[in-house]
């Protein structure tokens, strides 16, 4: 009639309860670990992507070789500016047709696109000086040299550069890298056909 509960039975019930609590803790820990691993993987892929973009912004730059101005001898002004560029050390492929250029001169700031973009307004042109393949606008070899030409006699262009004028050019590549080139027109152009700026 009467059931006697011994100490051994009580210990068994306590042991089963402890086991259930332990299993629940293991399951919660496993789920939390899964979430942490997924989050870590996501953050790692994002950081790699950001690192690659930052690397391109730093490395995919242009390097100025020389800047030359064509002299309009009848007015003692510069009518064209040619900037010869190459890849900066460690740079990847750079397509000049996708670049934008900020021209900051005596008459203000202009933003130019490549003439192949057909967007109207004042634009810049490129000409291969030395090209290792048939690409017309792509610097993809350290030996490649292209002229970036600014025609100051073209429609919508600012006035020709007078003696002593200062200009800053910022070339922004598609990867976001910026190359800044500054030059000053000599104080006396004389009877020269062209001058280094």
Automatic annotation (TrEMBL):
Any one Pfam family match given in the protein's UniProt record, by short name: Flagellin_arch-type
| Keyword hit for Acetylation | no
Q: Which GO terms describe its biological process?
A: archaeal or bacterial-type flagellum-dependent cell motility
Q: Which residues cross the membrane?
A: 12-37
Please state where this protein is localized.
Archaeal flagellum
- Sorted UniProt keywords: Archaeal flagellum, Cell projection, Cilium, Flagellum, Membrane, Transmembrane, Transmembrane helix
Q: Name one GO cellular component term.
A: archaeal-type flagellum
Kindly give the InterPro entries that the UniProt entry links to this protein: Flagellin/pilin_N_arc, Flagellin_arc-type
What does this gene product do? Flagellin is the subunit protein which polymerizes to form the filaments of archaeal flagella.
Annotated protein name in UniProt: Flagellin
Q: What is the protein's species of origin?
A: Halobaculum gomorrense
